[in-house]
UniProtKB/TrEMBL annotation:
Region (Disordered): 1-20
Residue intervals passing through the bilayer: 30-52, 72-91, 112-138, 158-177, 197-215, 235-254, 261-282, 294-315
Protein's UniProt keywords contain Transmembrane helix: yes
Superkingdom, natural source: Bacteria
Low complexity biased stretches: 1-14
UniProtKB keywords: Membrane, Transmembrane, Transmembrane helix
The keyword Transferase is assigned to this record: no
Source organism of this protein record: Actinomadura coerulea
Name assigned to this protein: Uncharacterized protein
Length: 351
């Protein structure tokens, strides 16, 4: 990593008291702006969507818009409960100074803007590649993921989706930045393995229980052969197609730069949530055929992914280890838990 002059620690990420972190979050203009934005997005969906969502969700025709919004707001409450749990489990740990892991401000700004442009280009190219082969656009979710649509994909599409995302959003950015910055500067090493392991186990158990209760995944109805073959295949496929791309692009590279540029825990976590939502703009259930559909799609993307993206950012801010969210809140629950039936169907794995 480049040598540079010492910087003032990011509030709440150095070895400071937990109470100070909570107070700083409550005083944060960014936090209150996000709360107002959340309320505005809810209102926008109610006004524009009508009684039924104009989206390709599997239950859009069966449930009202209001019912969907209730679910999403309940999920946000669960997000804050998980974040509170993470705070309690890490309150005695010395928090890393993520801003100190980023380059000086001008370089951090330049790299952030270039990454945003690169990410937008990667999504646009993924859209074009998917359509060129008669597939769904390549976003950070495989079509049919998370029970969101009834879409199923071919084996070729699933493999191409995973390979494209792995190369564009994980391998290429990591190779570029790893030549310039250390693994620690990219949040790729643990400063407290035992603490990280405990955090992973607790959050994973809580999230698996919540996902099981909320989504009632069909994995429990699969046969032994489907589980033995389908679960490992799902893990590998989604690790390549969404987990590693998300981890590298947002939580290893962007999060330290957000910390450097904002000097705020709350704003860094909020930007992490927004970046995570933006990477799903091509999800197969979205509709962009009209301004109304596009507005509802973007609003629903924010309501769906902003909260989980914040949890991942919070886990990274509290531990300085981008791998923690991979195991605690992404690869196993929800994806392996929820998407194994989808992958078993796609690859023709029968009982």
């Amino acid at each position: 990593m480049r040598l540079r002059s010492p910087s003032r620690p990011l509030p709440g990420t150095g070895p400071s008291s937990g109470g100070g972190t909570i107070r700083s979050l409550l005083r944060s203009r960014a936090a209150w702006s996000a709360a107002l934005g959340w309320a505005a997005v809810n209102a926008l969906v109610l006004v524009l969507a009508g009684r039924r969502l104009p989206l390709d969700l599997h239950d859009a025709g069966e449930r009202t818009t209001s019912a969907h919004l209730v679910d999403l707001n309940v999920r946000l409450a669960e997000v804050f409960l998980v974040m509170g749990l993470v705070f309690l489990l890490t309150r005695r740990r010395s928090r890393p100074d993520l801003a100190d892991r980023a380059p000086e401000r001008a370089t951090a700004l330049r790299e952030t803007l270039l990454l945003i442009a690169y990410g937008a280009g990667g999504l646009a190219l993924g859209f074009a590649v998917g359509r060129a082969f008669g597939w769904h656009p390549f976003g950070l979710h495989l079509a049919g993921s998370m029970n969101e649509t009834n879409d199923h994909v071919t084996r070729a599409e699933a493999i191409a989706w995973a390979g494209y995302n792995l190369v564009v959003f994980a391998v290429a950015p990591l190779v570029y930045f790893r030549r310039r910055y250390s693994a620690r500067a990219l949040n790729l090493v643990s400063a407290d393995r035992r603490g990280d392991l405990r955090l992973i186990v607790v959050v994973l158990l809580v999230e698996a229980a919540v996902q099981t209760a909320a989504l009632r995944p069909e994995i429990f109805g699969l046969g032994a052969r489907q589980l033995l073959l389908g679960a490992p295949l799902t893990f590998v496929l989604y690790m390549a197609g969404t987990v590693l791309p998300t981890m590298v692009f947002v939580y290893a590279i962007l999060i330290p730069r957000f910390a450097r540029l904002t000097g705020s825990v709350a704003t860094t976590v909020i930007f992490g949530g927004l970046a995570y939502a933006a990477l799903h703009v091509s999800d197969s259930w979205t509709e962009y055929g009209s301004p109304r559909e596009a507005a509802v799609s973007i609003a629903f993307l924010l309501l769906t992914y902003f909260g989980p993206g914040m949890v991942k950012a919070w886990l990274t801010v509290r531990t300085g280890n981008a791998w923690v969210h991979v195991w605690a809140y992404h690869a196993l629950a929800p994806h392996t838990l929820v998407d194994t039936p989808h992958v078993a169907h796609t690859f023709g794995i029968h009982r």
